[in-house]
Each structure stands twice: as C-alpha cells, then as structure tokens.
UniProtKB/TrEMBL annotation:
Stated name of the protein: 3-hydroxyacyl-CoA dehydrogenase
Organism domain of life: Bacteria
Domain 3-hydroxyacyl-CoA dehydrogenase NAD binding: 8-190
Boundaries of every 3-hydroxyacyl-CoA dehydrogenase C-terminal domain copy: 194-293
Organism: Roseateles toxinivorans
Residues of the full protein shown: 1 to 295 of 798
Amino acid sequence: MSRFQVRKVAVLGAGVMGAQIAAHLVNVKVQVVLFDLPAKEGPKNGIVAKAVDGLKKLKPSPLGIAEDAALIGQANYEEHLEQLRDCDLIIEAIAERMDWKLDLYKKIAPFVAPHAIVASNTSGLSITKLAEVLPEEIKPRFCGIHFFNPPRYMYLVELINTPTTQPQVLDQLESFVTSSLGKGVVRAHDTPNFVANRVGIAGMLATMIEADKYGLSYDVVDDLTGKKLGRASSGTFRTADVVGLDTMAHVIKTLQDNLKDDPFYPSYATPAVVAKLMEAGALGQKAGAGFYKKV
Ligand code: NAD
C-alpha cells in the first residue's frame, strides 16, 4: 500500500465537532484550514474565529498548547475555496442535514485535488446517498469518518465505505487515523447511524423515557449511567448537552426515516423534553444551556 501523506487537512464546519477535530489535527502537527459559513458580523468575529476562541474555554481544552489555536487557518466557502486545492484530506463536519451536505459537496467538488480523500463526519446519514452528488472521479475517494465527541479524547473512529469507495482509500485513511491521530478504527457498514450511534441513541432514548416515567432528576440519572457506574462518560443528560440537542434530534430522525420495520422503532420518538428545550434555544453546551442550566 502506498503511503498516504497528510500534510494539510480542510475541516468543513467549525461547530462542536469540526473545531475540535481541527484542534486534534494541529495538536499532532498537521496543518489545518477550518471552514464555515461567511461571517455576518465581519471576518474578525466570524463563526470560525468564535469556534477557535471557544476551544480555549472548553474544559478540558482540546488544544494541547494555547499557540496551537493560531495554527488553525480560517476560511469560508464563499471566498476561500481555492485553499482546498492543496489539501490532502477534506473532512466535512457541517450540521446533520443531508440537503445542506449535498449542496456543499456540489460547491467544493471543483476544488478537490485529484489525490485528496473526502470524508464525512456524519453521525449516521447514508454515505452512499451523500456520494451520489459527487463527480465520478471523486466517488472512489469518498467515505465516512465518524469521530466521537469529544474527538480529542474519544478513541473510536468509525470508517464507512460506499460501493464506489476504493478499498485502498479506506486502508490509507485507517493508517492515518491510527498512526497519526492515535485512534482506534472500526469499519462499519453504511447502515442508519452505523454501529455506535445506532446502539448509543437507543440506550439514551430508553433512559430518557424511563427517567421521565419515574420522575428521576438529571443528576441522579447521570450518576447512574455515568461516572458512578464506573464509566468515563458523563451520563445520559450531560452527554446529550455535550452532543447538542439539535444534533441528537437529527440523529433520532435518521432512525425514524430509515427503520420503520425495526421492532424498536416506536421508541425512536424525540422525547418531548428535548423538543421543548430546542424550542427555547437550549441546545446544550454550544448554547450555554440544555438539560443543565449551565453546561
Ligand atoms: P454544530 O451544529 O455544532 O455545527 C455545525 C456547523 O455547520 C456550524 O458551525 C454551522 O455554521 C455549519 N453549517 C450549518 N449549515 C451549513 C451549511 N448549509 N453549509 C455549510 N456549513 C453549515 O454540529 P456538530 O455537532 O459539530 O456536528 C457536525 C457533524 O458531525 C454532523 O454531521 C453531526 O451529526 C456529526 N457528529 C456530531 C457529534 C456530536 O456529538 N455533536 C458527534 C459525532 C458526529
């Protein structure tokens, strides 16, 4: 297998995941350019600048050293797409909406280098459907790369191929993710929410339904499902806040849209409390409030 040299990576989407994936990459000395929508407020206060600032405030911060933030190049899709041409890897991490991702792929396709790998960090949308909009020459180099939140600390990365992904591309990506990023890879089939989220979301929903039935507080449930159980993760409700309730709702919708014959299907409803918090803009950590008032 020829060695895949990753000198520069474009991360599309400077949200919860994109910003932290960028941070992890600069921590391991890979050059990064982080993209998001153009800033309404002007370049200095744009989405990417805010995301990079936010990285320093997260506890624990995903930035190894404070100066690493300065190494994250900032760009938007309207003015800076040329910068994609010298990227060896493009990781798409925009919101979990198939239509938005497809629009973006059409926009970036003319700027993708002939050798570059393009990979989506989707939580569980069909990688095969995402590939459909790409030109034939990019399809063999497109796949899913599913990091877990927080990406600096979570070991697992799922890699997902489509029928048109070249096997060598997945091998090259696996080698980069394990050797350079220090992660463990599971190769997953292109099924709704792949493996970990398919199981994980079912567990979270069942826990939320039961907690509501028995009137349990978020703290008690988080103790029972998190640290006091000996798990490294922070329990059901705090995890939902870290993930983002809007993202969680999108991930639930993927199950609703695709698994109508699944025996668990009736339990895939978005819990009323999640819908209510979303309506109030309490999307979790990224909004400063979610299940917990301050997250
Ligand atoms: P987020 O809401 O925090 O950030 C999404 C970013 O996408 C925002 O910065 C937004 O400005 C940008 N964006 C929105 N619409 C866009 C458009 N039309 N074109 C271009 N950019 C647009 O979301 P996130 O939690 O970072 O999730 C990003 C992706 O990673 C999703 O596919 C999600 O399912 C996946 N993911 C999320 C988690 C998690 O725990 N949050 C974990 C693993 C994978």
